[in-house]
Amino acid sequence: MDNQPLTVIVEYPVLDEKARKVLQWVHQLDIQFVGKIDDKLLKIGLDEIYYFETVERKVFIYTKEEVFQLQGSITDVERMMMDSDLVRVSRTCIINTDHLQEIRQLKNSRLEATMDNNEKIIVSRKYLREIKNVFRRGTL
Amino acid sequence: MKKIIKDTLLLASLMILVVFGVSILWAGVTQEIALVCKLFGLAFIVVVANHGLDIISLLPMRQSYILKYALVTCLVIAYGFVVGWFYPSNWWMAAIYTALVFIPAYFLDLVSVRRDVSYINRKIQERLGKLKHSETRGFYE
Asked: What is the pLDDT of residues B95-131, one digit of tens each?
């Protein structure tokens, strides 16, 4: 049993909205990205990823404590956005809302997201509706 | 309610366009029709500028509104001079007209942002609550 991969069987009488959300959640468990750190390539599961950031045409993956360079383009990440809890929060940043702890409006009317590792990310107001939609569609 | 107001405004715009469009066939371009066409033209220019600024600007909300106000006022003044609404003596009225649109828009936007932020935070708290509940029931064991 120890060497067997994780297997999830979802049974549903009708493919309704709830079943669809369960399938989406299960599918999300399987999403992985390849990141590079110290010349080593590693597979990183979506659940470990806090956010993606584009800096000078390079994409970096931020996990709880480490930073990897994505082996791929931001388009690969964007392609996964529909099937996951990833959402763009600014022109350069896509976060995993599973690790989002809070959004705050600062005194200068900027918006700031706090991740559950206490990292702060600036949120652009124009993407607020998209973040809201992730939570709207994601409630099981 | 927001959707009803939005749909009403869209329908009203469509009705104005249709009614005035038909009137052009009967009466030609009267002063009223010309005014409506000019207003639609100005609205189009302002919307394009607004979207353009949203794409290139990373400013916080307040600064973004101030920049947009300045830009739109300049556009309204320039457009007003071209179509003959303003003269060198009354160009400053453009700033007042623009402010009358921008001030309520800013406050409506502010309320909408606050509502969205509190919705998201409420959903996060609900999710954390569900997670704790699942863990105490051994859902992940």
From this structure: 898 899 889 988 888 898 999 999 999 999 988 887 6
Best mutation target among B68, B109, B123 (most A Cβ atoms within 10 Å) is: B123
Q: Across-strand partners of A59?
A: A54
**Band of pLDDT at residue B83, cut at 50, 70 and 90:** confident
Range of the domain at A72: 17-138
A50, pLDDT greater than 90 = yes
Is the CB of residue B119 less than 8 Å from the CB of residue A135?
yes
Task: Tell me if chain B has a CB within 8 Å of the CB of A120.
Answer: no
B115 inside 8 A of chain A by CB: no
Helix (H, G, I), strand (E, B) or coil at A24: helix
Q: Does A104 touch chain B (CB under 8 A)?
A: yes
CB nearest to A110's CB, from B60, B119, B121 = B60
Q: What is the pLDDT of residue B120?
A: 94
Residue A10 domain-assigned (yes or no):
no
Confidence of residue B141 (pLDDT cuts 50, 70, 90): very low
Q: Do B121 and A124 touch (CB under 8 A)?
A: no
Assign residue A42 the CATH number of its domain.
Answer: 2.40.50.1020
The domain tally of chain A equals 1
What residues does A45 pair with on adjacent strands? Answer: A32
Closest CA to A131 of B123, B27, B14: B123
